[in-house]
Specification:
The protein is of the alpha/beta class. It has 8 helices and 10 strands.
């Protein structure tokens, strides 16, 4: 991600893809960037084409809501547009009065998510296994969900269930060192 500071606000060179108009307002409060609105899961062919063109010209960062619809939309974009970057907002930072969405996030939270963008890595042997998650206490325990949320926030891959978390570790270029460091920070309660 290419970032410049303009008038005390980050300027993002890539186009940011969000779900709705309220998300655009939240992103614009946080950074200077061009934004494409998908209109939610009803992603049209025209919008997908705009995302493809944007990706080829200056790059794209997908920033969808941390919910099921947002994840499905992210997957649909990935299936059609190769090489997109992804920013994940922790669910608790996008929650307001029971509503989950980017529009509920504070500007500093959006900037933090954008500072941790990840690119979907192509193929290759998985770096992590379910045993790694079990050993780290990220699945199978009473506190696993909370630990996954903390590690996901540190790594910038967001919160999800154990299976999807393993997929994100393996597909978003997380290194063993990053993973170990994040797990240590969660275990010690260090400034998450």
């Amino acid at each position: 991600m290419e970032v410049r500071k303009v008038d005390e606000q980050m300027e993002i060179q890539e186009i940011i893809v969000v779900e709705g108009k309220n998300d655009v307002a939240a992103v614009k409060r946080a950074v200077q960037a061009e934004v494409i609105v998908t209109g939610g899961f009803a992603l049209s062919g025209n919008t997908l084409e705009r995302i493809k063109v944007a990706q080829s010209k200056c790059g794209v960062i997908v920033l969808t809501d941390p919910d099921t619809v947002g994840e499905r939309l992210r997957e649909r974009i990935n299936a059609v547009v190769q090489g997109c970057k992804h920013a994940f907002l922790p669910r608790e930072d996008a929650l307001k009065d029971g509503d989950v969405g980017i529009e509920n996030a504070r500007p500093e939270t959006i900037r933090e998510a954008l500072s941790k963008v990840r690119t979907l890595a192509a193929g290759g042997a998985p770096r992590f296994t379910l045993n790694d998650l079990m050993f780290a206490g990220l699945v199978g325990g009473d506190e696993s969900a909370g630990k996954r949320a903390g590690v996901g926030k540190i790594l910038g891959i967001g919160y999800t269930n154990g299976k999807q978390f393993l997929n994100r570790l393996n597909h978003y270029g997380v290194t063993r060192e990053e993973f170990a460091h994040a797990c240590r920070r969660v275990e010690t309660g260090e400034n998450i």
